[in-house]
Amino acid sequence: MFIPLHDANTLKHIKVQWVTLALIALNVAVWLFTSLESEQAAQATTVGLGYIPAVAFGQAQLAEGLDIVPEPLTYLTYAFVHSGFWHLASNMVFLWVFGDNVEDAMGHMRFLVFYLLCAAAGALCHGLLTTTPEAPLVGASGAISGVVAAYVMLHPRVRVWVLVFFRVPLPLPAFVPLLLWIGQQFFMLAFAPDADVSWGAHVGGILAGAVLILALRRRGVPLFDRKIVTPRAVRNEAGVGTAVAAGTDGRIERLPWGRDRR
């Protein structure tokens, strides 16, 4: 439906989103490692680290040598394995744009726990709903879905630049594209459960993220903020040659590319 490009939302409690950056780096490193392997070895890695419901529920066993980690750990390890570059890139773009502010609202360690719990919830929901329990589930989508749910509950009115249908850049309040995206996951789970995409993992992550943000956010961090936040660097004074635009509240807002909007 859309690709997030940029959100006008500064960090308030942390200086750097270390956990978000580390998660992106780890996902990229695992993808690079599997890309350099032979096709047979890459498939073995996918099976060994992926989440396989039939194995997790004791209905099947992996062949000897394929059990890279203990089976309970695959509720987490699957989220660091991706089937291809675009699978990786789409997940990491969402994490890059939205993860920093969720980490800011929780703190580093709580955000890491949050991310892993959303991944585990996505795997469990997938396992309960899938029609192909023998196939391995891979990808960070369950965890990313939790991040999206938490973000829209924290900052529904923050302006987000999104690329709609890969062509049209639009600045929208976060709740518009994100609630549409969340609705799509539930719709597809109901009407296309046999698709290659695990809508069940997405829905599991969304539900976990919506619940966990209530318990894991910092004390005093509000839900459903009503203020469109402008980046600190832009609030001060626009530098020479910097593309800026007037916001709806009279403040200036940085655009993600060199073009003015007035």
TrEMBL record:
**Segments forming domain Peptidase S54 rhomboid:** 73-218
**Membrane topology classification:** Multi-pass membrane protein
One GO MF term on file is: peptidase activity
Report the principal subcellular site.
membrane
Name the GO terms of the biological process aspect.
Answer: proteolysis
Q: Where in the cell is it found?
A: Membrane
Supply the SUPFAM superfamilies for this chain.
Rhomboid-like
This protein's source sits in the domain of life called Bacteria
Q: Where are the transmembrane segments?
A: 16-34, 75-99, 111-129, 135-154, 161-182, 197-216
* Alphabetized UniProt keyword annotations: Hydrolase, Membrane, Protease, Transmembrane, Transmembrane helix
Task: Give the record's family classification.
Answer: Belongs to the peptidase S54 family.
What protein name does the entry list? Rhomboid family intramembrane serine protease
What organism does this protein naturally occur in? Rhizobium croatiense
